[in-house]
Amino acid sequence: MSIVKNNLFLILAILICVFAVSALFHPGFFPIHDDEQIARLHELNYDLVSLHIPPRLSQNLGFGYDYPFFNFYPSFAYYFAEIFKLIGFSFILSTKIMIGAGFLLSAVFMYLFSKEYFGKLGGLVSAALYVYAPYHSVDVYVRGAFPESWSFVFIPAIFWSLYRLYKNPSVGNLLLFGLFGASLMLTHNLIALMSVPFIGIYFLYLLYESKNKKNLIFAAGIGGVIAFLISSYFSLPAILENKYTMVNLLTQQLANYNLHFVSLRQFINSPWGYGGSILGPNDGFSLEVGKIHLILVTLAVTLFVYNTYKKKSKSLVLIPFFLLFVLSIFLQSYYSKPVWDALKALSYIQFPWRFMLFAVFSSSFIAGYLFSVKFDGKIKWILGFFIISLIIVFYSGLFHPSKYLTKVDDQDYINQDEIRWRISKMAFEYVPLGIATKKSDLGTTVVDIKNSEIAQNTATPLSMGMMVNVVEDKPQLKILHVTALEKGKLQINTFSFPGWKVFINNKEIRYNDNNKLRLITINVDKGVSVVEARFTDTFIRKLGNAFSVVGIILLFLLLPIYQRKIKL
Q1: Do 377 and 523 sit in the same domain of this protein?
Q2: Is the same domain home to 371 and 472?
Q3: What are phi and psi of 24, to 5 degrees?
Q4: 3-class DSSP state of 512
Q5: What is the CATH classification number for the domain harbouring 479?
Q6: Are 238 and 318 within one domain?
Q7: What is the per-residue pLDDT for 5?
Q8: Residue 297 in domain
């Protein structure tokens, strides 16, 4: 009972999520914009079972041509779901557990962080606002952006660990900061990029408040290095090898930031819907911060200014967080267009409204200040729980999908035809640059391929009198026994992408990809040959892998001294 008593408010922070996750208890699944999620988990599972570690290819996404999806798309959330898949749960149920855990953990870390400044009640109010922010539901039940929704977990976790590092610059807190930083990079690399200025502003505030600035700078720096090292196996190739894909082209079209700015009216009042993001203020889904959020922020900032003027408030923490709030709103609005135009790296973010996560985070934190102010204890608790109840009643009705697909099962999402055609058409930004394309009915660039053209076999003879026996067919390894009556050509139905090497009878040969889909094509001599296509690491991947190994070793070397304070 003592454990429950000591952690009562943490338990309450988890329990308040019940209405946010209740939709997950319905049988089947639900329609979402990014309808690839279960297929991605299936492909990650297949990679791991095939010992393709770390996973970089998807055998079936990308029209079934060994698509380099996991080389560019962060997979931390899918790894979490994979734990439950390996236990024996279905792909759908494992995905639902992943979604639900994201809500629960976001509440936990938001509570832990806000509590440090505003006490248990303030932390609980902040957690409720954070979980039930309209955009949180948009991410999950409308967009289906599950990895992005998991960013809700690691943003407050990073801020909390940075605060702990400020209070106690120990090795343990350093490692905590590094692990959460690495987790965010491996969860959503774009959100990680976006978070840098926001974390930087908070760090400068802590530095201003710190009595031992050198230790804080050193500890945070080492934590940042550990975060970078651990995540390097993914982040380095994701950054340095995307030039080989179509991702830049697609950011110039429907994912162009110019089409997705948010109007000031939308921040305050934006009708709920399950449509898409379009040019102008009439988007198909809601982009409001949250009316209760805005009201409480206004009250908290007003009270903070009053208390500061009357010298009743010693903490200045609302200043950096109000700056974070204003900055996050500004970067979503059309007024920030000159900034987006000047900083070309921002184009990869695609949608300015992605900064809504930081508006939600900062506003939820600011609201907690109201319950740090000293006034009658009973009134404070009554008011706190009244506001939490109001948040749940007012917002919980948003936390459900447009409808439930009660009769679907795993096979509806993971069958080969589904993944290789319908889902592959939805997202193909990582196909090799130079692949044949055409204009869609919407005027956007798409891969020039028909369903009937998708290869059904691992390899296709392009010459008469050639027979192929498939010995091994894994994402990273193809072994073929080829019998040719005459010298001829063989097409291995795999995208030509840096790292692929082809061997005939254990001798490496050159291949060409001068064809419509840039598929690996080789010359085969008359007779019997053993053909191997191996996906190997490029220098960048080897470097990233090495950095990650160093980061993990450093982590384990430091763990035994985690309680020791850092002294300079």
Answers
A1: no
A2: no
A3: -75, -15
A4: strand
A5: 2.60.40
A6: yes
A7: 65
A8: yes
pLDDT of residue 441: 78
What single string gives the DSSP state of each residue in 279-339?
A: SSS--SS-----HHHHHHHHHHHHHHHHHHHTT-----THHHHHHHHHHHHHHHBGGGHHH
Q: What is the dihedral of CA 553, 184, 81, 36, to 10 degrees?
A: -130
Residue identified by tokens 């006490």 is 119
Residue 370 lies in a domain: yes
| ∠ Cα 12 15 18 (to 5°) | 155
The confidence score (pLDDT) of residue 105 equals 98
Provide the pLDDT for residue 3. Answer: 64
Tell which residue, 115, 191, 202, has the closest CA to residue 153: 191
- Domain hosting 53: range is 2-398
Element (H, E) at 100: helix 91-131
Task: Report, in this order, helix, strand and coil percent for the chain, each rounded to 5.
Answer: 60, 10, 30
Question: Are 246 and 375 in a shared domain?
Answer: yes
Q: What's the structural domain count of the chain?
A: 2
Name the CA dihedral angle for 28, 52, 459, 430, rounded to a multiple of 10 degrees.
70
Contact indicator for 17, 392 with CB cutoff of 8 Å? no
Q: Is beta strand 445-447 parallel, antiparallel or unpaired with respect to 459-461?
A: unpaired
Quote the pLDDT of residue 308: 87
For residue 35, being part of any structural domain is answered with: yes
- Nearest alpha-carbon partner for 153 in 143, 163, 174, 139: 139
Q: Which of 365, 398, 431 is the last residue of a domain?
A: 398
d(CA 331, CA 44) in angstroms, rounded, equals: 34
Instruction: With both helix axes pointing from N to C terminus, report the angle between 8-15 and 91-131 in degrees, rounded to the nearest 10.
Output: 110
Residue ending a domain, among 398, 413, 448, is 398
Q: Please name the amino acid found at residue 331.
A: L
326: tokens are 């204003």
Tell me: do 370 and 470 sit in the same domain: no
What stretches in the chain show pLDDT beneath 50?
none
Question: Residues 6 or more apart from 446 whose CB is under 8 A from it?
Answer: 425, 428, 437, 438, 439, 440
- What whole-number distance in Å separates Cα of residue 528 and Cα of residue 531? 10
Query: Who's near 177: CB < 8 A, 6+ residues apart?
Result: 158, 161, 162, 164, 165, 219, 220, 223, 224, 227
From the centroid of its chain, how far is CA 452? 33
Q: What is the pTM of this model?
A: 0.95
148, 140 Cβ separation under 8 angstroms: no
Residues in contact with 87: Cβ distance below 8 Å, sequence separation at least 6, in sequence order: none
* Dihedral of alpha carbons 388, 394, 395, 399, sign: positive
CA-to-CA distance for 50 and 66, rounded, in angstroms?
Answer: 13
Any domain includes 187:
yes
Question: What is the total residue count of the chain?
Answer: 568
Does residue 474 sit in the same domain as residue 375? no
CA-CA distance, 75 to 70, in Å (whole number)?
Answer: 7
Residue 220 confidence (pLDDT): 94
- How crowded is residue 447: how many other Cβ atoms within 10 Å of its Cβ? 17
Q: Which residues contact 324 (CB under 8 A, 6 or more apart)?
A: 198, 201, 202, 358, 361, 362
